[in-house]
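Researcher: Let's do a round of design. I'm pasting the structure tokens now; please hold your answer until I've finished.
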């Protein structure tokens, strides 16, 4: 029998390590995709709003495929969901090759949609799988630890974009491209899109290696939690849905996660445009600010995981959400180099938000967590919709002012932290027990 001292059940340590690789993997793709809004805006001479369809395709796939992933997990297992997700992501990454040959924007969107659909299934399966791998008392912190390796991937993704994609963009403006001959324009565009294709196709083979590793590893039987919902997890989707909608922490968790994803996507997608418009930086230099953001995100994730041993996650969530709001408004109303660094600092606030909201929302759901996880991943629709809103704001008012949109998106995150703090049965003294559990686990 597992003890409260265990952070991860002993028989699940190797599967946990393999899942950590998945967390890093989708981090690579997510941040390698963020600069594509600026890339396609340049390559195809389109508006920021049109180019924001990149994020609509990417996060729209999460919305559409998260619930089917939940059914896969319910019918089969988390391992099956992970393997199906990795397989579909591999297909999507390989589709970048024919898209680069056709040089058609719509084919790139299809490749992104397929890739993101696979990652949606992967993420819907991996997050609750990690939560199930140890005692519920430290589930949120365990998920934060696994998610701490996601920034390792995000840093790699930004580095790949900064070294393989952005430097290969031609310096010609939209007006200069319009004056070129068709043959000259196609030659430039071909080189740029080949640079986009290379890291994605290469990454397909990395995903394949992870797929093989997980397929060959024996995964222990998923254990039932002691929550009451575990006894009724097979009642069918309508009954599960009704129970979930009666759970206020889950219901408001969906709202908070929607706006968190919106804020994160807007921050990382438009940092490059902000740096270019407010400081005059070129594509490559502006890309390095995004790299700095990922480094801050990586370090802050580990610091936040440690801090949760001493401060309640909901307190940290509310404080960092309020700080992120202030930084975004500063960037909006004080454009320039200091505003760029304010956006870099926002990534420190982002570090703990997703796993903390996710862990709180799934707390005590038992078998219902399999469907609940799908609902939470569907909130990535925020990353599809809000970048289009901010893209329209950039076209109308400029990159600096547009970050008011991002700042407002952080407010529901603050509210959720305060809501959980005020409604938790354990009250303000719960973090002391949590700290003791963490100390024992370490």
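Researcher: That's everything. Go ahead.
Model: Designed sequence:
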């Amino acid at each position: 029998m597992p003890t409260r001292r265990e952070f991860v059940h002993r028989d699940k340590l190797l599967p946990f390590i393999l899942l950590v690789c998945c967390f890093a993997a989708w981090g690579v793709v997510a941040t390698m995709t963020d600069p594509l809004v600026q890339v396609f805006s340049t390559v195809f001479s389109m508006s920021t709003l049109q180019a924001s369809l990149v994020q609509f395709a990417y996060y729209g796939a999460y919305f559409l495929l998260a619930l089917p992933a939940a059914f896969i997990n319910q019918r089969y297992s988390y391992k099956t969901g992970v393997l199906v997700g990795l397989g579909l992501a591999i297909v999507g990454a390989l589709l970048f090759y024919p898209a680069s040959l056709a040089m058609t924007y719509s084919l790139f969107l299809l490749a992104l949609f397929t890739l993101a659909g696979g990652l949606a299934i992967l993420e819907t399966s991996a997050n609750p799988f990690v939560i199930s791998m140890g005692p519920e008392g430290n589930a949120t912190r365990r998920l934060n630890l696994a998610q701490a390796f996601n920034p390792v991937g995000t840093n790699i993704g930004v580095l790949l974009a900064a070294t393989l994609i952005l430097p290969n963009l031609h310096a010609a403006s939209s007006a200069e491209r319009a004056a070129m001959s068709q043959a000259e324009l196609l030659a430039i565009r071909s080189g740029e899109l080949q640079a986009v294709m290379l890291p994605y196709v290469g990454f397909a083979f990395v995903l394949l290696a992870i797929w093989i590793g997980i397929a060959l590893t024996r995964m222990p039987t998923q254990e039932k939690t002691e929550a009451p919902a575990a006894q009724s997890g097979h009642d069918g989707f309508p009954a599960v849905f009704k129970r979930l909608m009666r759970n206020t922490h889950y219901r408001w968790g969906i709202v908070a996660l929607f706006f968190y994803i919106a804020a994160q996507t807007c921050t990382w997608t438009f940092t490059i445009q902000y740096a270019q418009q407010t400081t005059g930086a070129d594509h490559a230099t502006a890309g390095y600010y995004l790299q700095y953001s990922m480094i801050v995100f990586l370090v802050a994730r580990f610091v936040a995981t440690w801090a949760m041993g001493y401060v309640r996650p909901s307190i940290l969530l509310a404080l960092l959400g309020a700080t992120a709001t202030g930084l975004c408004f500063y960037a909006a109303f004080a454009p320039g180099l200091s505003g760029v660094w304010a956006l870099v600092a926002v990534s420190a606030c982002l570090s703990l938000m997703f796993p903390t909201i996710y862990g709180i929302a799934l707390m005590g759901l038992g078998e219902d967590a399999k469907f609940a996880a799908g609902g939470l991943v569907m909130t990535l629709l925020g990353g599809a919709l809000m970048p289009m809103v901010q893209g329209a704001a950039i076209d109308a008012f400029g990159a600096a002012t547009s970050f008011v949109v991002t700042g407002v998106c952080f407010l529901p995150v603050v509210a959720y932290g305060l809501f959980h703090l005020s409604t938790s049965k354990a009250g303000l003294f719960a973090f002391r027990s949590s700290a003791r559990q963490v100390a024992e686990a370490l």
